[in-house]
Design a protein that fits this description.
The protein is an alpha/beta fold and about 260 residues long. Helix content is about 40%, strand content about 15%.
Length: about 260
């Protein structure tokens, strides 16, 4: 772990008082270490991973573009993702969005870049009243633009009915469950074709498990003529291995963004 400058006594005291006040008024605790106060204490925030890596699942779905993640799906990051997704702890959107931004930047997508969040099932959205993946993607885009990157969020994908909850499904079952489950929004696609005729797309999600969701999103986008440069996720499960080298398409010969055939 890299060395960090020591905090001044005054800053440490201010943080301690702020955490004590948060605990007193809201009963808040850090999702990582259960320390009373803010939902992510300074110590846990400082220890978050910072370096993206290729997060290939094993086995990888055929044709999947390189997926990138910043953390393994365990420990503090797993607790953060679950709290944000299942309990709507929206304060975690900022640190999680920062991790997703690092993964998206690691894809090397040529600008302009469109970050495409993986869509949630409509039943899940109704139950939560919140779209966690879009929230993280939007935050990542804000941070990347602040760093001078030409990046936007594009909600291009819609889920088709018939998809069941993925929990407990194996790799083959997930792939079968998701096959043909996403489609593109034609109206949005036409607007983007006019504004960004040569945009590169990055599929964004919170966690990569078997890669089936990312591959289905990639399939739906490529089916209407779009170029998917990579997949970016906050975390990935530990079922990973480096894939065999494959021939790569020249990144400077991307086809223009097409209005394609999708769905309204």
């Amino acid at each position: 772990m890299p060395d960090r400058p020591l905090e001044s006594p005054r800053a440490s005291l201010a943080d301690a008082l702020a955490d004590a006040l948060t605990d007193l008024l809201l009963g808040g605790r850090c999702v990582g270490c259960a320390r009373p106060g803010r939902v992510l204490c300074r110590a846990c925030a400082a220890d978050l991973p910072q370096h993206p890596f290729p997060a290939w699942p094993s086995p990888a779905p055929p044709g999947l573009v390189t997926p990138w993640a910043v953390a393994a799906y365990d420990g503090v990051v797993r607790a953060m993702l679950l709290a944000h997704k299942e309990h709507r702890i929206v304060a975690l959107r900022r640190p999680l969005g920062a991790l997703l931004a690092r993964a998206a930047a690691a894809t090397g997508a040529r600008e302009p870049v469109l970050l495409v969040p993986v869509p949630s099932r409509r039943a899940s959205l109704r139950q939560r009243g919140y779209d966690p993946t879009h929230a993280l993607t939007a935050r990542a885009a804000v941070l990347l633009r602040a760093a001078g990157r030409d990046v936007e969020v594009a909600r291009l994908l819609d889920p088709r009915p018939g998809v069941v909850d993925q929990a407990g499904l194996g790799a083959e079952e997930r792939a079968a469950n998701l096959a043909g489950s996403m489609c593109c929004r034609t109206a949005v696609l036409r607007r983007l074709a006019a504004r960004h005729p040569r945009a590169s797309l990055v599929v964004c999600d919170d966690v990569l498990t078997t890669g089936a969701t990312a591959r289905e999103a990639q399939r739906a986008l490529e089916a209407v003529g779009l170029h998917v440069a990579g997949v970016a996720t906050v975390a990935a499960t530990r079922r990973r291995f480096p894939p065999a080298p494959v021939a790569r398409r020249d990144r400077h010969s991307d086809p223009p963004l097409s209005s394609g055939t999708g769905t309204d």
